TrEMBL record:
Function: Methylmalonyl-CoA epimerase involved in propionyl-CoA metabolism.
Keyword Isomerase among UniProt keywords: yes
Gene name of the record: Mcee
Name the record gives this protein: Methylmalonyl-CoA epimerase, mitochondrial
UniProt cross-references to Gene3D superfamilies, sorted A to Z: 2,3-Dihydroxybiphenyl 1,2-Dioxygenase, domain 1
EC number, UniProt record: 5.1.99.1
One GO MF term: metal ion binding
Reactions it catalyzes: (R)-methylmalonyl-CoA = (S)-methylmalonyl-CoA
Keyword terms, alphabetized: Cobalt, Isomerase, Metal-binding
Keyword Lipid biosynthesis carried by entry: no
InterPro entries recorded: Glyas_Bleomycin-R_OHBP_Dase, MeMalonyl-CoA_epimerase, MMCE/EMCE_epimerase, VOC_core
Family recorded in the similarity comment: Belongs to the methylmalonyl-CoA epimerase family.
Length: 165
């Protein structure tokens, strides 16, 4: 009975695996893959006060401010262990953060950033799926890696940044 039971279980397992294989064949394969949440970006009207909140009040490890003229922002990263917060403050008159802060005087969540393993493949596939990308080519982001932004109207109201892992 031991051998018969094992054969019966093995046959059932093969049936389940076969069924799951055919199920997975119905899922379209992507040429790229979403990775981990890299950061949540928060626009802040006063960068020094925001840095002080996370560093002095909450005890987080907080970076120095870095200017990113190509993006029109100052960035500060707050380490959280499993991810980061990115504090954004306007740099220059044409900063996209300036217009955000005009509508949201006290600041607020600006975007989320998710890592991808192949940003060019992601761009190609997302364009085919009618997802608007806010630039023709990736730009170098705050981590020195290529990034793109997806239109919030195509992402249920959320500005999504994809970063090459």
């Amino acid at each position: 009975s031991g051998l018969l039971t094992r054969l019966h279980i093995s046959a059932a397992t093969v049936g389940i695996l076969s069924a799951s294989k055919s199920f997975s064949q119905n899922i379209p394969s992507c040429l790229w893959k979403l990775g981990r949440l890299n950061h949540v970006a928060i626009a802040v009207p006063d960068l020094e006060k925001a840095q002080s909140l996370y560093k002095d009040v909450l005890g987080a490890q907080v970076s120095e401010a870095v200017a990113l003229p190509e993006h029109g922002v100052y960035t500060v990263f707050v380490e959280l262990g499993n991810t980061k917060l990115e504090l954004l403050h306007p740099l220059g008159e044409k900063s996209p953060i300036s217009s955000f802060l005009q509508k949201n005087k006290t600041g607020g969540m600006h975007h989320i950033c998710i890592e991808v393993d192949d940003i060019k493949a992601a761009m190609t596939e997302l364009k085919k799926k009618q997802i608007r990308i806010l630039s023709e080519e990736p730009k170098i982001g705050a981590h020195g890696k290529p990034v793109i932004f997806l239109h919030p109207k195509d992402c249920h109201g959320v500005l999504v940044e994809l970063e090459q892992a």
